[in-house]
Amino acid sequence: MATARLTYFRGRGRAETTRWMLAAAGVDFINIAVDTPEELAALRASGKLPFDQMPLLELDGRNLSQSSAMIRYLARRAGLYGADDAEAMWCDMIAGVVADFAETGLQAAFKPTEAVARDDLTARFAKFGPRFEARIADQGSGYSAAAQMTFADVVLAEALSSYLEWVPDILDATPLLAALYQSVTTQPGIAAYLASDLRYPKPGDIYVIAAARVLQRALPPHMPDADRFVL
Ligand SMILES: N[C@@H](CCC(=O)N[C@@H](CS)C(=O)NCC(=O)O)C(=O)O
Fold first, then answer.
1. Which of 3, 62, 152, 221 would give a disulfide with 145, using CB separation of 3.0 to 4.6 Å?
2. Distances (CA, A) of 97 to 94, 152, 158, 211, 220
3. Co-location of 95 and 19 in the same domain
4. Ligand 1, atom 3: closest residue by C-alpha
5. Which structural domain range is residue 30 located in?
6. Is the pTM of this model over 0.70?
7. Where does ligand 1 bind, in terms of residues with CB under 6 Å?
8. 67 CA distance to ligand 1 centroid (A)?
9. Whose CA is nearest to atom 10 of ligand 1?
10. What's the CATH number where 55 sits?
């Protein structure tokens, strides 16, 4: 099987759920980092980005756009989309709410202080964490959508990994969620990915500045010279 190519900034961001799913599905991949506006312009000129956006996943001779499509394509390919329509529906419901929940994790590095980021994450977890816990209890398998691990569990664990980096005790009152996290992160493909050089570090100012530079966008307003990359 050819090695997949995942093109994005030099960091996790909106490519990270796809990396976890590639790992869960046992698909070898490399990260192709876009570090400059010129590299992004060349990528756009290549015609590989149907909507002009990253991430780009090159797999099976296809150019995939939209991380939500990538994770579902990989889920179908690897049998991680549930066993029937009802389980697939639960996968989609949970992946949908996880996208809402994960957004706070994605935004954390852009906040003015660590304390603000932690407060936002704690508040968001207070809303969704007990719901995830109740859903896992109802399901009864230890997973969120089906009798076995699905892509919904993978993206949930990916989001939780970000929450945990900012608020290490966040799962203390949700033991089923903590057990799900443990189960997904010890799946052999995911465990190998997390221990590898393919896993980028927790995003901070370096990542935020690099992404703004590539996109030629403003930095968060608390940063000095916030418009330095805006043309
Ligand atoms: N929903 C998309 C979001 C893609 C997205 O917003 N990509 C940003 C980088 S994180 C981008 O390429 N922005 C440039 C643009 O929209 O022109 C996904 O999850 O793949």
1. 152
2. 5, 10, 13, 26, 26
3. no
4. 66
5. 4-78+192-215
6. yes
7. 13-14, 52-55, 66-67, 215
8. 9
9. 14
10. 3.40.30.10
